[in-house]
Amino acid sequence: MPRDPLIGLVGKPSAGKSSTLNSLTDASSKVGNFPFTTIDPQRAIGYLQIDCACARFGVSDRCKPNYGSCVNGRRSVPIELLDVAGLVPGAHQGKGLGNKFLDDLRHADALIHVVDVSGTTDAEGKVTRGYDPSVDIAWLRSEIVAWIRGNLMEKWGSIRRRHIAVKVTAVETLQNQFSGYGSTATVVARTLDKLALKEPLEEWSDETIDRVVQAFTDEKFPTVIALNKIDHPDADKNIAKIAKMQDPNTIVLCSAVSEIFLRKLAKQGYVRYTEGSEFVDTREDLIADGDPDGGGLKELDEKNKNRIENLKDMVLYRFGSTGVNQVLSKAAEILGLTPVFPVRNTTTFASGANESKAVFRDCVLVKKNSTVADVGKKLMGDAPIAYIEGAGGIRVAEDHIVAVGKNDILSFKIGRA
């Protein structure tokens, strides 16, 4: 299955970026043929939690994904993650790993900015106390804006002259400059539409150019702010401050180390824990609930018992979960990703051999407002498509939009129409 879109994880050193990546890509609880894989030193596969179409049709017992897993209609869909090089202020001027960071960044469709909300690391990731993490959010975005704006202004005179000479639209001129950031003409068009600029490009002032770059940054690199280390005593005041400054719909509270710890104990048989859940059960908990065998769990030592109790109080019961699953879900939400289920038979929902009873073997994530034709191109490339069927064998037009529960189960019939 195609792996795009690509979600980039960014953050200063010691913010918890590596822990967050590890918690998102831990496939120890997954089944199927897609174990955790590092594609290269910076790329890995995470798992996005979605509602599977199998629950809609009452066939969850036969849902066997080729990749990821599906348990009682809750599906884990693989999604590619990019560990963007660490950064420090001045990255756009080449400080730290600045050039590497910005080069990595251009490939991402959305960003997850991991922020140390405890305030115990300074701008360069060194140990401190009382640091204001809201500063990190501001300067990361300012670094991206400064990078794009600097590149644009360096050639603005030539860009303006060419624009006048060849008489093309502002979208075409800007796309020529922004294509290096992985942009498309659609992204540039949406940027300019939102600004509703009256003056033609050749008359843009420095202030207008700055507005365009700011809007383009928001459009090309939508960002989830993952406030990490929420169990630290200093986190609350910093969370409250950041919540007043940022769009709350872009913020997720999380504790990556807590998620890693719980999954490790669950894998070793010490606790019963479903990733992303509010609840964790120990042997003692299950015995108290009437199970004399304690669910077959091992006995925890006193140190880990105390750690589990603290984790329940400081993270699970206060925030409802460790927040790790919600980080990817929020990234998918801001990108407007829609899961689509390609099948061979739109009545039985089988994908493999006719005798196979397994359903909904595949799932692909497409961006919002994708058409059936877009999905076909993503899956089939330039192969000729005779016609397309939706659920129940009903013919579907190529220009129909896909959405959850609408044109999201498709069968592409190869051949000339």
UniProtKB/TrEMBL annotation:
Signal peptide extent: none
Residue stretches making up the OBG-type G domain: 5-274
Record-given protein name: P-loop containing nucleoside triphosphate hydrolase protein
An annotated GO cellular component: cytoplasm
Lineage, uppermost ranks: Eukaryota, Fungi, Dikarya, Ascomycota, Pezizomycotina
CDD domains listed in its UniProt record: Ygr210
GO MF annotations in UniProt: ATP hydrolysis activity; GTP binding
A Pfam short name: MMR_HSR1
Keyword annotations of the record: GTP-binding, Hydrolase, Nucleotide-binding
Domain of life: Eukaryota
